[in-house]
From TrEMBL:
Gene3D superfamilies named in the record: Tetratricopeptide repeat domain (1.25.40.10)
Organism name: Parabacteroides chartae
Taxonomic lineage from the root: Bacteria, Pseudomonadati, Bacteroidota, Bacteroidia, Bacteroidales
Protein name: Tetratricopeptide repeat-containing protein
Alphabetical UniProt keywords: Repeat, TPR repeat
Keyword presence, Repeat: yes
InterPro entries: TPR-like_helical_dom_sf, TPR_rpt, Ycf3
Presence of the UniProt keyword Iron in the record: no
TPR repeats, residue ranges: 314-347, 428-461, 505-538, 544-577, 616-649, 653-686
């Protein structure tokens, strides 16, 4: 409560005095007499001149002491700053002076004038009041009493003020006022009211007396009288400095009487006129605004109230939550209810806040950091007899199904000893959802385990159980376990109630691929046809791809015309990715002896799809078509292109053989020999090199120059093994059979024996590759890497692609990313299989990212993303790495499209980080509204990757800090601090921002 004391100027006289100085030469006695006369007349300047002159001429010690006394008094009366020092110096000089009581009184009065009340009390106590004259005694009593009041000795002060009130003249009314004030301050309100009422007739005390009368009525909860006194004060004293406080008690009084309009009018004026309004009044004003529907104003008031840890703050948070709800700001409402629920000053408020907090978690699907699933369960534990219990029980099961913090939900369900059917239904769905999360994050074994658990629960939730079969099939397919995948897809198709729609159609497509991979072409054909019949979206890449697979199945059953029709359909549906369709169509034309049509198709593929992996195949088949047309020149040109443009391709080796044969048949033996030698020299150890060497022998025989052949073979040294001994062959084949049978232990022993017996044998490269494969399977990576290096150094190209792939994979697993990057680049240059090409691009992208080679990472990501059939997981990863590379290269605007795409699925770690990065880029560009929208969407959709959600909270706080909205910033940071369980750098980020907010 604000306490205002009467200004001293009303009761304390000034020390003003004037005088005129005279400068004459007079006798010392005359100077003293005149100085004393002027002192009595209060002519202090003249007195000072006379006495100072006297002191210079006189030797009378008594008169000099008396002069010093008067000069010390003059210093006080003139109000000099150093008056107390002058007076104290006098006492030090004349400790036995007869004026000691008066001097002590003056010293005390000097400190009093400077509001040094503790010092004043000390010096007043050094003076004996009875030794002062009557006027000084009354002044002493007032000043001493006032000093005691200021130092907290109210009872003692009241005694002196009572004496002044009774016998005083100058300070009679002042004494009465301070007696009343002390009664007011010590709770003797009725006594105070009597005196204040009498003083209302005294002009100098009327304002303060009316003011304290209003305060007393307010304290006594006599709101009618408070209002009457308060309104009179505002009317009679419109400019009083007390008016802010008057409006405060008026607003409170009107509030308690139910007049909220007048309460708002007075309290709002009080708040605007006060630098630091009281929290309780802000709370009442907030309640009035809330009740009148002014929710934004209510939020402002309650937001200023929550500065302390007490019951008022708890209540204010509850109202804040309700206000935010009215404003449809559920996130801030949730945090306000959470804050109210964290404290226990008022159990009823805590209960209501906890319920509302839990309900908002449920309604907004706010994932938070572990509290979303268990919040209702905790509520029931804390408030078992709550009026909300029935509703909470109903919501609890629903929460299990709607929250995305499935692991916390599952942990909570596992604690229930006797789960109901509804809880088990929820558990089955949660296990399924966890499985899809693991699948999305490419944790296939973990996904399969979760789907197994969902399926094993039985028929509580048929939809979740059937969908678990589908996604377990997807997981098996990704692992290459096609028979298991096919079984799950069939079960899904048989059991699902939804016999139409995207997943049902896709199951046929996926099942078709399972059969296709197992070379069960008739079954595959049936499923792919079922898929295209029921798929409604003809723009999907899978739709066009299904026609390619239909064509492949028809091709296998030699239904060439129908296969060609399917390839044409696929090319029409997806022209940008029709290279395979065009190639297969050309190949079929060749089988049907339409060689010119085949050449035209292959030319189209080379022209329209220059980056297709089928270009080398197309050129080779074009050459073969020219051979069938007996166009040697055209064939030679095609084969030469294959060799020059794709020297590492298998087709280049085959083209070399075809070129040699072509020249030999055209009776150009020298050119034929050169072509065969090129194959032997460029691809030593390959099957084609062996064929070329065999055919070369025929060429030299035709030239009748066997010596030249022998000389050439001898020049090759041991790089080509042509003549294989029977023992060499039999020893190797026995070991190879063991390896192919999967008996790795026995195979390793036999292959090692083979290499010991034939260290430079014809099959040494094969043996090293198989031994490397065994070591790799046993995770003996150093040994495997050495063996694969031996394969590569041998010059035998048969296993070059796979040996390079395994070597790169080992270097990647051993985190030797710089070496792995080089190996993946080598693999990219020689790879022919789609799997190895994709693995090379993926490896290059990842290793470039890890080694900080952002441009290489970006280029590799671009290469990967050209594949329209890239899996969703790799597509997301490539976009993520490309976006990160753009950001690192300070081209953040180019990262936006990728971040926008992958941030749509925050179940993956890439999607979660992308969501945060997208908001961060918007914030960096000062697009706060966009950043806030992304983060709110992030909070609403949730993610299992809580670190990035926490970073999102911190970024939200940064946004609000930049907008000077410290309240919301503090709310998000506090919520994060209370709920985030990680042991990383998040805690430091929170503390850093909270510290800045405190400052």
């Amino acid at each position: 409560m604000k306490r205002i004391l009467i200004p001293l100027c009303l009761v304390v006289g000034s020390h003003a005095a004037t005088g005129q100085r005279s400068h004459q030469f007079e006798s010392p006695e005359r100077l003293f007499v005149e100085g004393k006369e002027m002192f009595v007349l209060r002519n202090y300047p003249g007195c000072t001149d006379k006495l100072e002159a006297f002191k210079k001429q006189s030797t009378d010690a008594d008169l000099i002491q008396e002069s010093d006394y008067m000069l010390a008094c003059v210093a006080f009366e003139q109000g000099k700053e150093n008056a107390s020092e002058v007076l104290k110096e006098f006492m030090d000089k004349y400790p036995d002076t007869r004026h000691s009581d008066e001097i002590h009184f003056l010293i005390a009065s000097a400190h009093f004038d400077h509001k040094e009340f503790e010092k004043a009390v000390f010096w007043f106590n050094q003076s004996t009041i009875e030794m002062l004259n009557p006027s000084q005694q009354e002044t002493y009593s007032f000043r001493y009493a006032y000093s005691l009041l200021q130092t907290g000795e109210m009872d003692k002060a009241r005694g002196y003020f009572t004496r002044l009130k009774q016998i005083g003249t100058k300070y009679n009314d002042a004494g009465a006022y301070y007696v009343a004030y002390i009664d007011y301050a010590t709770g003797k309100y009725n006594n105070a009211l009597v005196e204040f009422d009498r003083l209302k007739d005294k002009p100098e005390y009327a304002l303060q007396s009316s003011y304290y009368t209003a305060q007393i009525y307010f304290i006594q909860k006599k709101y009618d009288r408070t209002i009457a006194e308060g309104e009179a004060l505002l009317k009679n004293y419109p400019h009083s400095e007390n008016n802010a406080e008057v409006r405060r008690i008026l607003g409170n009084s009107y509030y308690h009487q139910g007049n909220q309009d007048k309460a708002i009018a007075n309290l709002s004026k009080y708040v605007s006129d006060t630098d630091a309004p009281l929290r309780g009044d802000l709370y009442i004003l907030g309640v009035c605004y809330f009740n009148k529907g002014s929710f934004n104003s209510a939020v402002d008031c309650f937001g200023q109230t929550v500065r302390e840890q007490d019951a008022l703050t708890q209540n204010a948070y509850l109202y804040l939550g309700q206000s935010y709800l009215k404003l449809n700001d559920k996130n801030n409402a949730r945090m306000a209810f959470e804050s109210a629920a964290k404290t226990s000053f008022d159990k009823q408020v805590k209960e209501a806040a906890t319920y509302n907090y839990a309900l908002l978690i449920h309604q907004t699907s706010f994932t938070g950091f572990g509290e979303s699933v268990t919040i209702f369960e905790n509520f029931l534990n804390e408030f078992p007899n709550s009026v909300y219990s029935d509703k909470v029980n109903d919501y609890l099961v629903e929460v299990y199904l709607t929250t995305k913090d499935y692991r916390s939900a599952l942990a909570s369900i596992e604690k229930i000893k006797r789960p109901s059917t509804k809880i088990l239904e929820a558990k089955q769905d949660i296990l399924f959802q966890l499985g899809t999360q693991s699948f999305t994050n490419v944790k296939l074994d973990e996904a399969i385990d979760l789907f197994n658990r969902a399926i094993s629960l039985g028929s509580y939730n048929l939809e979740a159980r059937n969908d678990a079969y589908f996604w377990r099939g997807e997981s098996y397919y990704r692992k290459g376990e096609f028979a298991s995948a096919a079984s799950d897809y069939r079960t899904y198709l048989n059991n699902t109630q939804a016999k139409s729609g995207e997943m049902y159609a896709l199951a046929h497509y996926n099942l078709g691929y399972c059969y296709f991979k197992q070379q069960q072409y008739a079954d595959a054909l049936s499923r792919f046809r079922s898929y295209v019949d029921m798929e409604s979206n003809r723009q999907l890449p899978t739709y066009a791809d299904a026609y390619n697979r239909i064509g492949d199945c028809l091709f296998q059953s030699r239904q060439f015309a129908q296969a060609e029709e399917s390839y044409s359909r696929s090319a029409t549906l997806q022209p940008s990715a029709a290279d395979y369709s065009v190639y297969q169509k050309g190949f079929l034309l060749g089988l049907q002896k339409d060689y010119r049509g085949k050449i035209s198709a292959m030319d189209r593929l080379v022209r329209e799809y220059p980056e297709s992996p089928y270009v080398d195949d197309a050129l080779f088949e074009k050459g073969r078509a020219y051979v069938m047309l007996e166009n040697s020149q055209g064939a030679a040109e095609a084969f030469e292109k294959v060799i020059s443009q794709f020297p590492q391709s298998t087709q280049a080796r085959k083209a070399g053989i075809q070129l040699g044969l072509l020249y030999f048949n055209d009776n150009q033996p020298e050119k034929a020999a050169a072509a065969y030698k090129k194959v032997v020299d460029n691809y030593p150890g390959s099957d084609e090199a062996k064929v070329a060497l065999q055919d070369l022998k025929s060429v030299y025989m035709d030239l009748n120059d066997i010596n030249a052949y022998a000389s050439y073979v001898n020049s090759l040294g041991g790089s080509v093994h042509f003549d294989v001994s029977e023992q060499d062959s039999l020893t190797y084949l026995a070991a190879e059979k063991l390896f192919m049978r999967g008996d790795n232990a026995a195979a390793k022993k036999s292959l090692t024996n083979y290499l010991q017996s034939f260290p430079k044998g014809a099959f040494s490269s094969n043996a090293n590759f198989y031994l490397g494969s065994i070591a790799f399977a046993n995770k003996q990576y150093d040994e495997a890497k050495q063996l694969f290096a031996s394969v590569l150094s041998s010059g035998d190209t048969k296993f070059a692609e796979n040996a390079t792939a395994r070597k790169a994979e080992i270097e990647y697993l051993q985190e030797d990313y710089a070496a792995a990057l080089l190996s993946f680049k080598q693999l990219h240059a020689i790879a022919e299989s789609k799997e190895n090409k994709e693995a090379a691009k993926l490896g290059m992208m990842r290793c470039a990212q890890y080694t900080g080679k952002q441009q290489d990472a970006l280029t590799a990501a671009d290469e990967l993303l050209k594949d329209p059939k890239l899996s969703p997981e790799l597509n997301a990863e490539a976009r993520y790495i490309r976006a990160k590379a753009y950001i690192a290269l300070k081209q953040a605007s180019k990262a936006l499209p990728d971040l926008q795409t992958i941030s749509k699925d925050t179940r993956t770690v890439h999607g979660a980080e992308a969501k945060y990065l997208l908001a961060q880029l918007y914030f960096n560009n000062k697009e706060n509204a966009k950043a806030e929208k992304e983060l709110m969407n992030f909070i609403e959709n949730g993610t299992p990757h809580q670190y990035w959600l926490a970073r999102g909270f911190i970024l939200l706080a940064d946004i609000y800090i930049s907008q000077n909205d410290d309240f919301q910033a503090r709310q998000y940071l506090t919520s994060l601090q209370n709920n985030y369980k990680g042991t990383d750098d998040i805690a430091g980020m929170i503390e850093n921002r909270l510290s800045k907010l405190k400052k």
